[in-house]
Amino acid sequence: MFFKKTDIFFETFKAIAENITRAAEDFSAEIHNPSSDKRGLTNLQNYEKTGDRYTHTIIKELNKTFVTPLEREDIMNLAVKLDDILDGIEATMIRMDIYDIKDMNIFIKRNTEIILEQCQEVEKSIGKLVTKRFLEIRTHAVRINELENEADHLFNNSLRELVASCNDAIQFIKYKQIYEMLEEVTDACEDVANILESILMRNS
């Protein structure tokens, strides 16, 4: 399928957002119902490779397009931050595999649910960007930020519980790092929301 130059960026962003949501769905499903054959990890690695191809498409088109549909800096920042979400999800899954995390506790499960909902909101907001319904982006950006605030509280509570109950130093380090990595993914989603709001301000 061929797109006009102005469409390439929007269509690629749409594909990136859809890929991220699918990855977040598989990530949450794997955490709630772990597979025994590492299928979930393999799937996430495939999503990450697909995401990298989309990001490279954005960069390649940006380098050869004189007039872009949005500010060049906004396009680049959005592409990079969307990629950060996917990279963070994959990195967390890899680290959990390396650490052989078996206890998918309430903090880990709820974090993956938050990440999934954030990614769904990111996909919706990108849909509004593609159709140039800029003012409607704000609703989704606000929800992403609300979810990030919930993730902050969850992170603090998870650390508090870890300090109070974990007497094994190695297990403490493992879970602390997993909690931190999950928090970084929610932060990356918030970064995307902030970029989208700046695009909204410049185009409304």
UniProtKB/TrEMBL annotation:
This is DUF47 domain-containing protein. Belongs to the UPF0111 family. PANTHER family: UPF0111 PROTEIN YKAA. Gene3D superfamilies: Phosphate transport system protein phou homolog 2, domain 2 (1.20.58.220). It comes from Desulforamulus reducens (strain ATCC BAA-1160 / DSM 100696 / MI-1) (Desulfotomaculum reducens).
